[in-house]
Design brief:
The chain has about 625 residues and is an alpha+beta fold. Helix content is about 40%, strand content about 20%. A nine-stranded mixed sheet has the order 1-6-5-4-7-3-2-8-9, with helices on one face. A five-stranded mixed sheet has the order 10-11-14-12-13, sandwiched between helices. Helix 9 packs antiparallel against helix 10, helix 10 crosses helix 14 and helix 18 packs antiparallel against helix 19. Bound molecules: adenosine-5'-diphosphate (ADP).
Length: about 625
């Protein structure tokens, strides 16, 4: 008996559309067919467990195979199977309200995922790569007749009896001429590796050779021979589906290596596991990072019930955690909708918050459990924590308890500890606490030494994220500001009661200023005569904190180019109390005064590595003369 019918959609040309529009993504046909096979296999298991299926379950391994000559790809399962009636019901009625809606929505669809899932077209994705598709199926029902369904991509189909004797379904694709690339072992293996590597039912893709022991030779040495064994391409119970209590560190590390064979061991990991108010499992790893943001992105793989979906998890994982590695599996993430919808989805928001919280809790726990180990890892973790604190307020609130500040001696402090440490020495007369930092310990060494001499502590803020972190901290910390250690002469860095007075008279100060201005002869530098300790350098060249940040912003492309033309503007602090200044004043010879002033100024530049080229040559020459 043979029956012909029409697939109930109301347009003749849906398959050509599917083929054409989805071409770039067409490899997902295999994901869809294998997922259906997995579903059918799990259903039969469940029915057996419930006592509703009384037959032998048997081996449920799914077979994927291809035939280059016949140009076919076949996916065979031993799942629940379908009767002819079921095929008509499930396969022929494409689940959407009408072709017009479909075509309407289609216009904006960006990728195949959007359409395939939304319209229940999983099975029909086969027509992206096949001219004709056959289904051979034997239902689990007792006495069921095997059925065969054939469709050539038009809306006509044909159902007839099949000679299939084993329970389950074979889907045979007759690959079209544009898709022959899929009739290739490596291509198929690659697609299966990508989408099916962690599916919960074993999937066999042909055979592979393996070496096995083959007795011993005359010298008593082991012999080996090569045998063909089933090529099972998946791990059916990946670690994220297992209970954390049953897993060892080795298991986590092994899985990491499986996902990212080339990577160094991760620092630590977090096992995610919630089932209310949404369902999510996964393992996130903190990788060892170099300060290289972009390179490491998109390393988190998103799964839905162990089927790989995408490694673009933007919007699901908080931005600052995009640098993490690992997997997330959630059937509750809408996979088939557009980006903007995803952002508005309440589950996605909850998932986002959950992950943020879990990561914060884990970090807090590590910090409490073993501070020493935590400090050792801080160089790597710091990037995430700082990034997180800057970008998410919720994370800042948690992070402020385990974020560390590191000083130029390599000591670590929490924010609270540090405040207590520097409070006695670094509070200005307006009660503001001044945190000092260096961005380059070598270049700013003179300033760091001067600050340390005054019992000031200096933080090391030398990673690219630090300049943002500084700004953010300043907004958060109460009555505190941050200044780079070379933002002013040490006595002026923190405005304190009872600093050094400039002992020169106003007239003398003006004279000194004049001499220096003449000697320097450059508008970039503005001279100020002030009082500092006679132990300090006679001259210090600094750039105001505010000015420097503006320039940095312009350099990093911020400020919309407004500051692009900011002139360099340095302050030349002349120490009125220094013996050299005294000597300059006392000299009667104007040329000698200028020479000494220039020499003192050049020394200041030299100490910061700012003296180069002709200026440096002139300085060396002058120094020799002075000797
Ligand atoms: P979805 O899987 O999203 O429901 P599909 O178009 O892929 O959409 O499949 C439609 C239906 O056809 C499935 O829900 C299932 O009932 C049935 N089906 C598809 N493939 C198989 C199979 N290999 N074995 C048994 N039933 C199947």
């Amino acid at each position: 008996m043979q029956e012909k019918g029409t697939i109930s959609i109301h347009t003749e040309n849906i398959f050509p559309i599917i083929k054409k529009f989805l071409y770039s993504d067409n490899e997902i046909f295999l994901r869809e067919l294998v997922s259906n096979a997995v579903d059918a296999s799990q259903k039969i298991k469940r029915l057996a467990a419930l006592g509703e299926y009384k037959g032998e379950l048997g081996d449920l391994t799914i077979d994927v195979s291809f035939d280059k000559d016949k140009k076919t790809i076949t996916v065979s399962d031993k799942g629940i199977g379908m009767t002819a009636e079921e095929i008509k019901k499930y396969i022929n009625q494409i689940a959407f309200s009408g072709a017009s809606e479909f075509v309407e929505k289609f216009k904006d669809a960006k990728d195949a995922n959007e359409i395939i899932g939304k319209f229940g077209l999983g099975f029909y994705s086969a027509f992206m790569v096949a001219d004709t598709v056959e289904i051979h199926s034997l239902s689990r029902e007792e006495g069921a007749e095997p059925a065969k369904w054939v469709c050539d991509g038009s809306t006509e189909f044909e159902i007839s009896p099949s000679d299939k004797t084993e329970r389950g379904t074979d889907v045979i694709l007759h690959i079209n001429s544009e898709s022959e690339e899929f009739l290739d072992k490596w291509k198929l293996q690659e697609i299966l590796d990508k989408y099916a590597k962690f599916l919960p039912v074993p999937i066999r893709f042909g055979t592979k050779s393996e070496s096995v022991e083959d007795g011993v030779d005359d010298k008593g040495e082991k012999k080996w021979k090569s045998v063909e064994v089933d090529n099972i391409i998946n791990t059916t119970n990946p670690i994220w589906t297992q209970a954390p209590s049953e897993l060892t560190d080795e298991d986590y590390l092994k899985f990491y290596k499986e996902l990212y064979p080339m990577s160094e061991d991760p620092l630590f990991w977090i096992h995610l596991n919630v089932d209310y108010p949404f369902n999510l499992t996964g393992v996130l790893y903190f990788p060892k990072v170099k300060n290289d943001f972009d390179l490491q992105r998109n390393k988190i793989k998103l799964f839905s019930r162990q089927v790989f979906i995408t490694d673009e998890v933007k919007d699901i994982v908080p931005e600052f955690l995009m640098l993490l590695h690992g997997v997330i599996d959630s059937p509750d993430i809408p996979l088939n909708v557009s980006r903007s919808f995803l952002q508005a989805d309440s589950n996605v928001k909850k998932i986002n918050n959950y992950i943020t919280k879990k990561v914060a809790d884990k970090l807090g726990e590590l910090f409490k459990k073993d501070r020493k180990v935590y400090e050792e890892k801080w160089k790597d973790i710091g990037l995430f924590v700082k990034y997180g604190m800057i970008s998410e307020d919720k994370f800042y609130e948690k992070g402020k308890d385990f974020a560390l500040l590191t000083n130029t001696n390599g000591e670590h402090f929490t924010l609270d500890e540090y405040r207590e440490k520097v409070k006695p020495y670094q509070t200005g007369k307006d009660e503001t606490l001044v945190y000092l930092y260096a961005t380059d310990a070598d270049k700013q060494d003179t300033f760091i030494q001067s600050a340390n001499k005054k019992d000031y502590d200096v933080l090391l803020m030398d990673s690219p994220i630090d300049s943002h972190f500084i700004q953010h901290l300043e907004g958060k910390l109460e009555k505190a500001s941050l200044k780079r250690v070379d933002a002013d002469v040490v006595d002026k860095l923190i405005d304190k009661e009872g600093g050094y007075e400039n002992l020169l008279t106003e007239e003398q100060s003006n004279k000194v200023k004049e001499i220096f201005e003449k000697a320097i002869n450059n508008k970039t530098y503005s001279v100020e005569v002030q009082g500092s300790s006679p132990e300090e350098l006679p001259v210090t060249v600094t750039m105001d904190e505010f000015m420097r940040r503006m320039k940095d912003m312009a350099k990093n492309g911020g400020g919309m180019g407004l500051y692009g033309s900011f002139p360099d503007n340095y302050k030349v602090g002349v120490n009125g109390n220094h013996p050299v200044v005294d000597k300059i004043l006392k000299s009667e010879d104007a040329a000698e005064q200028e020479r000494l002033a220039k020499q003192a100024f050049d020394l200041a530049l030299l100490s910061q590595g700012l003296l180069t080229g002709k200026e440096l040559t002139a300085f060396v020459k002058r120094s020799v003369e002075l000797i």
